[in-house]
Amino acid sequence: MPDEIKVKHITVITRNPSGRGDLGACESSWYIIDEFHRLILTDAHGVPVHNPTTGNLMTHRMRPGDHEKDVAQRMTLELWRANRGDEKAEFNRPIRYSRMVY
Fold first, then answer.
1. pTM for the complete prediction?
2. Are 60 and 75 within 8 A, CB to CB?
């Protein structure tokens, strides 16, 4: 009987803190490594995730020297950007200035 594939968790920073009261932002993601040495992004239950803009399965063939956490972080950011939509809309976001004290 083959071993059960373990779903692993990763957290990625999507925005660094910008000052007092701003904690930044992060995204969580899950992934598996299948028997063909592919890293596949999944949900928490192990169901594979598709890129919303392309419809492709979020996979990466692991090569010698690849570190699974680095690959999973890169793929999570790619998925986060695809889910977020137009990156130029982020340009007009509110700017949080720190309080100036003299």
1. 0.75
2. yes
